[in-house]
Amino acid sequence: MLLLGNKVLVVIDVQTEVVEHGYKRDETIDNINRLIHCAREQQIPIIYIQHEEQEGPMIKGQPGWQFHARLEKPLHQEVTIHKTVPNSFTNTSLRQTLDKLDATHLYICGAQTEFCVDSTCRGAFDLGYNVTLITDAHTTNDADHLSASSIIEHVHGTLKYFWSPNGTITLKKSSDLDWMKNEVNLK
């Protein structure tokens, strides 16, 4: 059974191969788990996204493809959508699932910042959704030419300027989300 609501939490690719060596991995996954916990308490639907490839460690069913051991796993009523490209909307049922939920505002977290997180934020924006990228709940790895923290800073610096009459992308820490206020007070 899907919970209905305008807000939806989208958890992207928090899989072993993707995040095992991610920047601030444990802190990031702990923040994602708090988001999941609060979303469940407030009946905000959660959609998990899981990337798969034809070769290598991201083949469906392989250890690297599995959700990371630290991540709070989907409940039976929560949707997991499988994808093969960075944008979670491409060749998937994500948009149809969001339509069934009457979603208007997506809260996005996960990995990797400059690939699937960025692509999904842009895809959602292009489709007219309001997007909040949760700044302390996504991660990436160092690249040959740039540190993970620089990559994250660059993505934040780019996405914060996205705006149209049909949708926005905003950046917020998890503690600044209105539906996370009770969690902050519990600490």
TrEMBL record:
It comes from the Bacteria. One of its GO terms (molecular function) is hydrolase activity. Residues 8-145 form the Isochorismatase-like domain. Keywords: Hydrolase. Belongs to the isochorismatase family. This is Isochorismatase-like domain-containing protein. It comes from Sporosarcina globispora.
